[in-house]
Design brief:
single chain; alpha/beta; globular; transferase; Nucleotide-diphossugar_trans; Glycosyltransferase 2-like domain-containing protein; glycosyltransferase; Glyco_trans_2-like
C-alpha cells in the first residue's frame, strides 16, 4: 500500500536545533514528503532562516506563543497526506527511521506508530489509583503501546481528525499524547511501538527553558485531568478517589493541584467514539505485536 507523508515540527526559539537536525530530516524522510514547521512565536530568526535556507519547507508562524499542544493541532490541520510524522525539534532521525513504521499502516486499524527513541522505550502501564507507567525494558520486538509519543511518532491523518487531535485543555503540554492514545484505543484503534524505527531524542527542546517547578505543577495537573476525563470504569474511578484522598492527606500541598485541575474541567472536550472500556485497553496494551 502506498502512503503519503508530511513531517510536522513544532518549534519555539529553536533555530539552533533546526540547523542541527532539519537537513537530516529532509534527507531521510523520503522524496515527496512534505515538511511543515510550526514556528510558535519565535524571535530568534527561525522564519527568516527557513525562507533563506529551506524555501521548500512550509512554515506556519504564530504571532504569539501558543504552546506545544495548540501548535501541533495547527500543523495537523494543514496536512493533506494520509499520514504525518510528528517530531520535536530536538529529534535526530536515522536513515531508515520511517521504512518499517510506515508499513504498519497497511493495517487500517493502526492509528499511530511510536518511534524507537534510543534513550527511551515504550511505556509499560498499569493502574493503581491512577494510570502509572515506566519505561519497558524489552526493546527487541514490537509492542502494542498505550500511546504514541508526541515527540516522535507517525499518525494516520483521518483518525487524528476523527478523534479531534490533541485536547487543548492540556496546554501548554504534557499528557496530551497519553490522552489521545487512550481515546484511540477506546475507539477501536491500535498503537504500535516499532523497535526498527530509530531516532535519537536529545531532550533539548523548549520545555527545558521553562521554570521547572511550574512545569512539574502542570504535569501533575494534567495527570489529574487525564484520569478524571478518561477513567470511565466505576471500580477504577472509586480506586482513584481513594488514592486521591490518601495522597492528599499525606501531601496537603497537593490540594493546589486538585483546585487547578478543577478549574480547567469545564474546558475538557467530552464525547467521541468508544467501543472499548478501560479494562479492555489495559489488557490489550503492553503485549508484543
Amino acid at each position: 500500500m502506498k502512503h503519503s507523508l508530511t513531517v510536522i515540527i513544532p518549534t519555539y526559539n529553536g533555530l539552533s536545533l533546526l540547523k542541527k537536525h532539519l537537513p537530516q530530516i529532509i534527507k531521510h524522510s523520503g522524496e515527496g514528503t512534505k515538511i511543515i514547521i510550526v514556528d510558535d512565536g519565535s524571535i530568534d530568526g527561525t522564519v527568516e532562516w527557513l525562507g533563506k535556507e529551506h524555501a521548500q519547507v512550509a512554515c506556519i508562524h504564530n504571532d504569539e506563543n501558543l504552546g506545544f499542544t495548540k501548535s501541533v493541532n495547527l500543523g495537523a490541520r494543514n496536512v493533506t497526506t494520509n499520514l504525518f510524522v510528528l517530531l520535536n525539534n530536538d529529534v535526530a532521525v536515522t536513515r531508515d527511521y520511517l521504512s518499517s513504521a510506515v508499513k504498519r499502516f497497511d493495517d487500517p486499524k493502526v492509528f499511530a506508530v511510536t518511534l524507537n527513541e534510543t534513550k527511551s522505550s515504550w511505556p509499560l502501564i498499569s493502574f493503581g489509583g491512577k494510570l502509572n507507567y515506566t519505561r519497558a525494558e524489552d526493546k527487541t520486538k514490537a509492542y502494542f503501546s498505550a500511546w504514541a509519543s508526541g515527540g516522535s511518532a507517525i499518525f494516520r491523518t483521518r483518525h487524528w481528525q476523527e478523534l479531534g487531535g490533541f485536547d487543548e485543555v492540556y496546554s501548554p503540554g504534557y499528557w496530551e499524547d497519553i490522552d489521545l492514545g487512550w481515546r484511540a484505543w477506546k475507539a477501536g484503534y491500535k498503537i504500535i511501538w516499532d523497535p526498527r524505527a530509530k531516532v535519537v531524542h536529545e531532550h533539548e527542546s523548549t520545555f527545558n527553558r521553562y521554570d521547572r517547578n511550574h512545569l512539574n505543577f502542570i504535569k501533575q495537573r494534567n495527570e489529574l485531568v487525564f484520569n478524571w476525563k478518561n477513567t470511565t470504569d466505576e471500580n477504577l474511578r472509586r480506586e482513584h478517589l481513594r488514592y486521591l484522598a490518601r495522597y492528599t492527606l499525606n501531601h496537603p500541598g497537593y490540594l493546589k493541584v486538585i483546585l487547578s485541575a478543577l478549574m480547567v474541567l469545564p474546558k475538557i472536550r467530552r464525547g467521541g467514539p468508544s467501543v472499548r472500556g478501560d479494562l479492555e485497553v489495559l489488557q490489550l496494551v503492553n503485549r508484543p505485536v
